Amino acid sequence: MELIKVHDKYFQPFLDENLIRERVAKLGEKISTDFLGKDLVMVGVLNGAFVFFADLCREIKIPIQVSFIGISSYQGIESTGAIKSTIALNGDLKEKNILIVEDIVDSGASMNHLILEFLSLGVASISIATLLFKPEAFRFNYQLDYVGFEIPNKFVLGYGLDYDGLGRNLPLIYQLKTS
């Protein structure tokens, strides 16, 4: 088991590249089937979702539009609980089918914030795709339509996720080593 050090913390491998690739392909296939014949706008949540978003887009076999939004709620390895927008949406989304693509849903506060924002824009529908979901930490009552992996409530990085700005470029997902 190869440990890596990022800043002051050690991380161990958690989800390997092949497992991630296979799951993303299955999610893309399901999304393609579910939205066949419908206009779909995929909205990537920056910064963390950019790798998952790009890979997922390549697996979707129907026409799609893409947009991005930036929000942040983490500092270090902890959520601050405060959600701030860092990049605004581009384009008119009124009466569009929206698929929000997120890297990870843990407490659910950031996604809840986005759902309310999209509803205020008058979208036709909102679906959610997340690579990782932490059911133990989830505090809301909305549906996650496409989930890559359910994981324990532990800090992870890699494949777009970071620890204070580092680790996003790692091809697999690592978990914080606790002992």
**Using DSSP, what is the number of strands?**
10
What is the strand content? Answer: 35-45%
The major sheet is characterized as: 6 strands, mixed
Shape: globular
* Classification by helices and strands: alpha/beta
Strand order of the largest sheet: 5-4-3-6-7-8
Uncertain segments are none
CATH architecture: 3-Layer(aba) Sandwich
Number of helices: 3
Radius of gyration equals 16 Å
Describe the fold and architecture.
The protein is an alpha/beta fold and 179 residues long. The protein has one domain: Rossmann fold. The chain has three helices and ten strands, in the order ββαβαβββαββββ. Strands 5-4-3-6-7-8 form a six-stranded mixed β-sheet, sandwiched between helices. A four-stranded antiparallel β-sheet has the order 1-2-10-9. α1 crosses α2. It is globular. The two termini are 14 Å apart.
Summarize the structure.
By secondary structure, the protein is α/β, with parallel strands linked by helices. The chain has helices spanning 17-34, 50-59, 109-120; strands at 4-6, 9-15, 40-46, 65-75, 78-87, 97-105, 125-133, 146-150, 156-157, 173-176. Helix 1 (17-34) packs across helix 2 (50-59).
Secondary structure elements and pairings:
Layout: E1 4-6, E2 9-15, H1 17-34, E3 40-46, H2 50-59, E4 65-75, E5 78-87, E6 97-105, H3 109-120, E7 125-133, E8 146-150, E9 156-157, E10 173-176
Parallel strand pairs: 3-4, 3-6, 6-7, 7-8
Antiparallel strand pairs: 1-2, 2-10, 4-5, 9-10
